Amino acid sequence: MLIDFAQSRVFEYLPKVILPACLATLAMLVISLLLSTIVGVSIAVMLTLSHPKGLAPNRYLYRIFNTLIDAIRSFPAIILIVLFTPLTRWLIGTSVGWIAAVVPLTIVAFPAVARLIENALLEVDKNVILAARSFGASNRQIITKVMFSEAAPAIVSSMTFASIQLLANTALAGAVGAGGLGAVALTYGYQRFDDLMTYAVVFILSVIVLVIQYIGRITYRLFK
């Protein structure tokens, strides 16, 4: 089916709808990624330390965090976004808008971040850890100065993947009142049968993904 350029209002909506939505999407992405990284790294460190083959094995602590991560990851993102609407309303005062969407998006994202970083840390060569231990390094020093340093390239790749996945979730959140590009594609594109508007949003999202991948690739080379 051909696109009807004459009927499309994409150029009319570009400055007053699409551009603000793009900025809202980027704001959701950056803030949610920052918060989920803080939480995810903290949990990843706990998982790595308490892992059966970790620096300070603790079966019960590991089981608690592991179950928490698996439980949250078992739900589809859109379900979690809706599920945490009351929490969002309690914390922010509203469940509508990109600021409110940061809360559920962070909850959706941090389990994946935690698991990816945990896997990256556990892949560090055990001989390197043993060497650090032989020099009298503490668990904290091994984690911060050895394991994170050795796992940096893998962590960068993992965070690139997590960022792209989070971008997809921001589009999903647009369907439940978060705003952003997802809401524009749904409201101004799909519901008004404006195919060009929908394709324009898809193109912008694709460009953002390419930028994320490019930044991730450059950063990976710096740490490699």
From TrEMBL:
Residues 22-216 form the ABC transmembrane type-1 domain. It is a multi-pass membrane protein. It is found in: Cell inner membrane; Cell membrane. The chain crosses the membrane at residues 17-50, 71-92, 98-117, 166-190, 196-216. Its main location: membrane. GO terms for cellular component: plasma membrane. CDD domains: TM_PBP2 (cd06261). Keywords: Cell inner membrane, Cell membrane, Membrane, Transmembrane, Transmembrane helix, Transport. One of its GO terms (biological process) is D-methionine transmembrane transport. Belongs to the binding-protein-dependent transport system permease family. PROSITE patterns: ABC_TM1 (PS50928). The keyword Repeat does not apply. This is ABC transporter permease subunit.
